[in-house]
């Protein structure tokens, strides 16, 4: 009852995975968390992108890329491919494996999970979106693909504001990427999502996070929006 909102916190500590770690992952590791709780303002996402940029630059991490997407964009793209809401989780789990199993592997997983053939037919055009190195061009391409989807368009406007603000405040355009298929496996994300990758790294992402509108609901405190990111070592 004594916290002032929005509440900002960071913490560096050992953490443990509740699931079986995949390749390049550990059951126990050190993580730095940064969270902003108690506001839906997208200025919070901007601050966290700045933290990625300034922190990784100060650490001398070469060739890092801040990958950005929005779960609402993912939902709109899935719907455009004929995937119903009840199959959305299956679709995101499959596309999240694209870098590991390739386009053909994702198609096979679509088939195994009973997704419609239209989802497989749409996949090449979604993969092509990832070829845009300019984040604003990528957003233009996504907007054209989702021109009839109101929620998707709202999310794209929000992402465009985030990218433009980030560049205006000194974040290099070269390190910003819009990845239309970035999914983040956790279902509690509801808005912007982030991952940071490094060129030629032997692991996947080194940072991640996103917006969660009601994560505090599982603790009996519903309706508290927040956004957070983490650096994992």
Largest sheet: 7 strands, mixed
Number of helices: 7
The spatial strand order of the largest sheet comes to: 1-2-7-6-5-3-4
**What's the gyration radius in Å?**
18 Å
Mean pLDDT rating: 91
One letter per element, helices H and strands E, the order comes to: EEHEHHHHHHEEEE
Alpha-beta classification: alpha+beta
How much strand content do the residues show? 15-25%
Instruction: Give the terminus-to-terminus CA distance.
Output: 33 Å
Which bin fits the share of residues in helices? 25-40%
Low-pLDDT stretches: none
Strands, total number: 7
Shape: globular
Describe the protein:
The chain has 233 residues and is an alpha+beta fold. 39% of the residues lie in helices and 22% in strands. It has 7 helices and 7 strands. It has helices at 43-58, 71-80, 88-95, 98-112, 117-129, 135-145, 150-168; strands spanning 7-16, 28-37, 64-70, 176-178, 192-198, 205-212, 226-232. It has a 7-stranded mixed beta sheet. Helix 4 packs antiparallel against helix 5 and helix 6 packs antiparallel against helix 7.
Compile the SSE list and pairings.
Layout: E1 7-16, E2 28-37, H1 43-58, E3 64-70, H2 71-80, H3 88-95, H4 98-112, H5 117-129, H6 135-145, H7 150-168, E4 176-178, E5 192-198, E6 205-212, E7 226-232
Parallel strand pairs: 3-4
Antiparallel strand pairs: 1-2, 2-7, 3-5, 5-6, 6-7
Helix pairs in contact: 1-7, 2-7, 3-4, 4-5, 6-7
């Amino acid at each position: 009852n004594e916290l002032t909102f929005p509440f900002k916190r960071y913490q560096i500590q050992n953490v443990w995975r509740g699931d079986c770690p995949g390749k390049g992952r550990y059951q126990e590791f050190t993580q730095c968390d940064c969270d902003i709780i108690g506001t839906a303002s997208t200025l919070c996402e901007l601050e966290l992108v700045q933290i990625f940029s300034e922190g990784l630059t100060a650490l001398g991490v070469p060739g890092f890329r801040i990958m950005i997407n929005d779960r609402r964009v993912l939902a709109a793209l899935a719907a455009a491919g004929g995937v119903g809401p009840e199959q959305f989780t299956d679709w995101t789990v499959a596309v999240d494996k694209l870098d590991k199993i390739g386009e053909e592997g994702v198609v096979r997983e679509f088939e195994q999970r009973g997704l419609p053939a239209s989802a497989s037919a749409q996949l090449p055009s979604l993969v092509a979106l990832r070829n845009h190195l300019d984040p604003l061009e990528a957003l233009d391409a996504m907007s054209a693909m989702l021109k009839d989807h109101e929620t998707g368009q709202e999310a794209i406007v929000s992402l465009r504001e985030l990218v433009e603000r980030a560049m205006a405040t000194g974040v290099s355009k070269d390190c910003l990427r819009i990845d239309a298929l970035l999914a983040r496996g956790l279902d509690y994300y509801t808005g912007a999502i982030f991952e940071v990758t490094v060129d030629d790294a032997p692991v996947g992402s080194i940072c991640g996070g996103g917006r969660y509108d009601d994560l505090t609901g599982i603790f009996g405190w519903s309706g508290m929006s927040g956004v957070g990111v983490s650096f994992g070592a």
